Amino acid sequence: MTPLSDSVVAALRSAGCVFAEDEAELILSTARTPDEVTAMVDRRVQGLPLEHVLGWAEFRGLRIGVEPGVFVPRRRTEFLVDQAVALAKGASVVVDLCCGSGAVGAALAAALGGPELHAADIDPAAVRCARRNVAPFGGLVHEGDLFTALPDTLRGRVDVLAANVPYVPTEEVGLLPSEARDHEPLVALDGGADGLDLVRRVAVEAPRWLAPGGCLLVETSEHQASLAVEAFTRSGLITRLEVSEEMYANVVIGVRP
Q1: Are 86 and 59 in contact (CB under 8 A)?
Q2: CB 84 within 8 A of CB 160
Q3: Are 77 and 103 within 8 A, CB to CB?
Q4: Tens of pLDDT along 99-144?
Q5: Which GO BP terms sit in this record (predicted)?
Q6: Whole-prediction pTM value?
Q7: Is the Cα dihedral 119, 116, 104, 170 positive or negative?
């Protein structure tokens, strides 16, 4: 290690960063000058999420651009993408609803060989960020509340509808790590009283947008999964739950008959 890397590790460790060595390596490989290193370390020590400090997050082998005020894609959400890819290898139309940075849409487009890609979010900052991330795949990003953001021409045509909606119960938002609570938009975290408000809304509307055999996928928590499955089933979808204990991920999948 160099004196600079030693000092970066020491500063991060003193700020409580558990993976100080790994974070130092990422900062040093991203910064272009020693002054940038200092500025990035200062922002990290002040509590800014590492991904916001770097300006990108790794997601399923892609570098997804992120910025302050935009939800950082979680590694566990890669499990949702894995499930979608396994289920719909020949998908021609993909929608990333509540897209945030557009990570899910970009990863699906990369894995599925360039389908027609649409993404949508209610947050203007997320929309701006997602547009940059899906542009290499020819993706379009729409601003608005869930399905109202999408063009009507997509009705009945969507093969994969990935809706990584917020699912933290309102009373539990305050219990989240400060990196999320203080630096990510509330609209990307708060899922209502039991965390399932948006899951239910999506489940009700999804069958009108899915193509026959098209699939809806949402991420949820272990204790919410059974209620999410019920919501999907009530909407007439053929529903199942997939779980990855390794990634702490629960994905509810509904297929339009």
Answers
A1: no
A2: yes
A3: yes
A4: 999 999 999 999 999 899 999 999 999 999 999 999 999 999 999 9
A5: methylation
A6: 0.92
A7: positive
